Structure formats: C-alpha cells, structure tokens
Amino acid sequence: MYEDGHLRRNNNLLNLIAVNKSKDWAIINYKHSHQAARLGAYCAFFISAEEYKIGNNDAWKNTAFEYLETIEDPLKTAYKPIVKETFDENKYSHKEYLVEVTKQSKRKAKNHINKLIKASQLPKE
Q1: On the CB side of 94, how many CA atoms lie within 13 Å of its CA?
Q2: Does the reported pTM lie above 0.85?
Q3: Where are the alpha helices (DSSP H) in the chain?
C-alpha cells in the first residue's frame, strides 16, 4: 500500500480524508476518534482490495466496499464547505441553496469514491 503511493501526503485520494490540499496539504482528521471513518477506513479499504486481488475472495471485496461506505459520509460533510464557496447564496432561496449544496456534496463524494475504486483496481459492485 505504501509502495503504491496511497499514503503519500500529496495523494489526491487522501484529500479530505487525512489531508486538505486547499490548505497546503495540511493534516486533518488526526484525532483518534476520526480514524475509524477516515484514514483507518482508507487504509483498511486498500488492504482489503489488495487481499481480494491476491485471492479473488469475494469476502475481501465485500469488506473493501464496506469501508468505502464508511468513508463516504465524512466525505460528503467535508465537501460541503468547498461546494458552498462555489454558490452564490443570494441566487437561491435558503431551502434551495441547502438542497443544491447537499446534492453537489454527495456528487463530489461519490466521484471521490469512484476514484478510490479505480485506484484499487477492484471491479465495481
């Protein structure tokens, strides 16, 4: 996993999971309580994906996708402030603004998850 570059600080896949590239790759989510849904889940995902590739055991593939589900919600939350910066709140009603920010945050998180799947070389579910 380390040799594949998945733990390099400037790896885009780690953005908003363990680092923030918009803040000069500053380390984020470093508290112990954050690890299960962030860096810990990220590492466990790639380890599970690698084990699946070695043995073609569906249990490892299923485990990898479970870790992706764990990562997805924190990513949605992390993308919200970024998405908010791109919207002019005055062009929408407050409710429309919140709906649109949530929709775009979910889309960005899903794209991030798809990039993780591609990098792991797992077949899609």
Answers
A1: 0
A2: yes
A3: 39-55, 58-86, 94-120
